[in-house]
Every structure is written in structure tokens, then in C-alpha cells.
């Protein structure tokens, strides 16, 4: 099984991601309060609805935090392959949350469009500007981290921040139009909100695909399989490499490998070669959590 | 790996499951139309809500059907372990849909309770009786198939029918109370709708749990582990069984097994033992799609 240092590498990355989710949580709590209070006093319905969504986002952040921490747990008796699959699952939860948020925003906007309301106050624009800047910064930072550790859940968390940026921009444009245009443009903020709903929903849908692939144990694309084959072939005693199957579990990889050796050597020697192969492979990439080597007698010698 | 002998009974079970899901879809389509129209003309909000839920069921059945079709595909280049995980994924998506529907209906019910409206018409009760009877029959039938095939998705589908029967029963009671009680009891059907939401949400969570366990590659409980170990241990030449990991992929199982043999025999002989172990295990249970045997020298030797 995996050595302690490898375990810590992926677990540490997941835990760092969990900490980022906590940062998002604190920011969302602060924004929820500011937006709801500002929206009520500034008569900006879009802002109040936005604030309600931030409040719901807090629940989302807690789930991401929990999911990533769960994924970081080492293998145990009931989960012999580790808890890595909790990572793409968390990404799926986030994707659902993003789509639901878009639907909720659309329903709310359509509803208020039908009922007249008073014009929003200018100071609500300042709140939105601040939200856009802070959330866009968070988005970039979290996305970069998510990319560097190749975590779908952390990347999905980043896109949640981007969705907030978009809805805040829509509210900003809508409120600006209502302020400049006067009476006729009162429902502009609602139209802007509905437009943004579509964008947010499409972000949600886009987050699904890679997570689904990973849960399906799709063979990872790219050179990882080649690197594993090369590493295995370089071990003395290995005559040929037959099947090499790789699957991703969260941030870890699991490898099933069929290698061919001289059929007349003893099982003891074959076992030693298998161990060398495993070490050689794990040295090429610390993300490989386990390699199961299946020893076959080389066909040419039969 | 034996992609060629991808167990036949599994594929047939999946196809039966897919057919059952398709049938459920047609029933739901008819009911959804009947409930929504009846609710609109009969002035029963709970019936409209119920109808919307049936509409969502159609989407749910469609997803389950697609998931099962995908899960039945044999292993290929990009999916060396088969497509079985599509099955619990479909279950997760449907469970989410159910939870979202419950939340949406609860919000609507509360709104209806707060705004006074006319009492429901008596003919709505007849629609509900038809729905309850047919849905309960469907539940029993589909659940039997799901249990037999050990498919999470098909069982999910079955419980969906049961939750429909329950919500319709709640609607029946609510409308009856509103009709018998008169003026003061007008909102009884809305309260019934609220109760139905709680039932729907509980069902959603019920469905979510096993699907999540499966996606997490949780070691299957029960006797399958013992059966695998016993079958392997019975093969001549096997000294001891070390680790045995089993994971579920849709309706099939994958086994990783560490077998200890005499360290002084040749790799060829060891390989033959490994093959015999694999065959012994697969003969025991046709749902086991593949066994990867890792041969180790026995520690005592």
C-alpha cells in the first residue's frame, strides 16, 4: 500500500482545499449580511435576493469543506481504496448547487418583475462593486490552486465564486439602468438577473462532465499511462508489459498492471520483480497511491 | 481481464431494469396530465403539486433509464472497468431531483396556506384513488425486480412509485378533510401537501445513501467477501489468502486478491494457480466481472 509521505501529499492538498472552502464560507456570511441589509434599506430587490443566495452558499461551503476532508482520509477496512471518490462527488454537489441557485434566481426575478417596486438607492452599487472585486479575486486564487492539484471539487468551488461575480455584475448593470433611465427602466435589474441565470446554469452544467467521467473510472487522458509503462519496462527482469489500467480516486491514482517475466524463475523472484516495478512506478509520480502487479510468464518462452 | 465473458445475467438484468423504467415513465406521463388538469379544474392545490412531482418523475425515470443503458455497455478502451458506475450516478441525480422537488413543493404549500382560496372539488378524490392503487402495484412489482437484480437504480425507481402513492394518499386525506370540514378547514389540502413534502424528502435521502456508498467504492457487506475467500482457498496450491478487496460497479463486482503460494515454485505454476483461483471465484458468482490475482510467496516458506 501507499507510504506515509505519499498519503500526506494528496491529503495535504485536499485539506488546503478544505481551508479555502472555509475562507469562502466566512466571506459568504459577511456578504450575505451586507447584501440583505443594503438591499432592504436601499430598495434594491436584486441585492436582497443576491444576499439570500449568499446565505445559501454558506451551506454549500460547509459541504465542500466536509467533502474534501472526508476525501483526505486514509484507506480503512470499509474503504480499501481510500475515500478519494468523495472528491468528484463533492464537485457534483457543487454543480447541482450552482444550477439550483440559477433556477431560484430566475424564479425570484420573474416574480418581482410583475409587481412594481420603488427605485433602488445609489449606495447599493458600492456594495456590489466590492462584492465583484473580492469574489473575482477569490475565484482566481482558488481556481489556480484547484488546477495545480488537479482537484475537480476545488475548481468547482472556484466557479461558485465566479457565479457570484456574474450575478453581482447583472445586479450592478440593472440598478444602474434603473437609476439613470428612471421610471421606464425600473424592472431592468430583473431582466439583468434573468440573463445572468442562464450563464450561471451553463457553468453548473459544465462542472458536471469531468466529475462524472472520474466517477465512471474513465482511463485518465495524457501521458500518465505511458510513463507507468516506461517505468515498469525499465525494471530488470521485466520482459514485457501487457495491460496497464489506471483509474483516478480523487487526487490519487490506482494502477492495475500485467507484467511478463521469465516463466521458469521462482514465484519468490517474480514477487521481488513485482515489488521493484511498484517502487519504480511510484517514484515517477507521487500521486500513484497503489499498484497491483499481476505476474505472467512471457508468452515467447512457453 | 475478461471483457469477453462480461457476465451475461448482469446485462439481461440491466435490460429488464431499463424496460421497467420505461414503463414507469409512460404511467407517470398519463398521471401527471390527469393530476394537473384535475387540480386546475377541481381547485385542489395539493393535486397540482402532486402533478408537478409526477412530471419530475418522468425526468427521473428518463435519467435512470439512460443510466442503466450506459451501465450495460461492456468495458472498452476508455472505460477498462466497464461503465457500471453510471448506475449509482443516475441514482444520485434522481435523489437530488427528488430533494429539490420536495423543497420547491414545501415553499409553495406554505404560500398557499398563507393565502385563502376556494375549497377543492369532490371529483379530485377519484383521480387520487386511481393513482394510489396503480402506484402501489407498480412499487411492489418494480421493487421485486430491483431486489432480484440487486440494482440500486431500479430500487430507487421503485421507491419513487411508493412515495407517489404516499403523497397521493396524503392528498386524499387532505382534500377529504377540506370537503367534510367546510369553511374552517379550507387549507387542509395544503397542509397535506406539506406533509407529502416531508415524505418525499425522506425518500430522497433514503435513495442517496446506498448510491453514495457505491460510488465511494465501499467494501460490499455480507457474505460475498467470505464466498470469494473460500473459493480462492479451495484451489490446490493456494497456501493462504492475504488481502481481498471487492468493489461494486453497477451490477457487477471487481475483486483484487492477494494469494500466497509456495515461493519456490515457478512463475508459470504460480500463474496457473492464479488462473484457477479466478475461475473458481467467477464460477461461484457470475456477477464478478473480473478478478486480479496478485501472487505472493507464502511467508512461512
Structure description:
The complex is a heterodimer of chains A (302) and B (301). Chain A is mainly alpha-helical and 302 residues long. Chain A has helices at 4-41, 45-71, 86-114, 123-148, 152-181, 188-215, 224-233, 267-284, and strands at residues 240-249, 252-261, 288-297. Chain A has eight helices and three strands. In chain A, strands 1-2-3 form a three-stranded mixed beta sheet. In chain A, a hairpin with a 2-residue loop joins strand 1 and strand 2. Chain A starts with a helix and ends in a 5-residue tail after the last strand. With 301 residues, chain B is mainly alpha-helical. Chain B has a three-stranded mixed beta sheet with strand order 1-2-3, with helices on one face. Chain B folds into two domains: 8-215, Up-down Bundle (Alpha-lytic protease prodomain-like), CATH 1.20.1510; 224-297, 2-Layer Sandwich (Alpha-Beta Plaits). In chain B, helix 1 packs parallel to helix 5. The A-B interface holds A 77-81, 83, 85-86, 89, 92, 96, 100, 212, 215-219, 243, 245, 247, 249, 256, 261-271, 274, 292-297 and B 1, 77-81, 83, 85-86, 89, 92, 96, 100, 212, 215-219, 243, 245, 247, 249, 256, 261-271, 274, 292-297.
Provide the number of structural domains of chain A: 2
What CATH first level of the largest domain in chain A would be assigned? Mainly Alpha
Largest sheet of chain A: 3 strands, mixed
What fraction strand of chain A? 5-15%
Mean pLDDT of chain B: 82
Quaternary class: heterodimer
Q: What characterizes the major β-sheet of chain B?
A: 3 strands, mixed
**Topology, number of strands of chain B:** 3
- Please give the alpha-carbon distance between the first and last residues of chain B: 30 Å
- CATH class of the largest domain in chain B equals Mainly Alpha
CATH topology of the largest domain in chain B: Alpha-lytic protease prodomain-like
What structural category arises from helix and sheet content of chain B? mainly alpha
How would you state the average pLDDT of chain A, rounded? 84
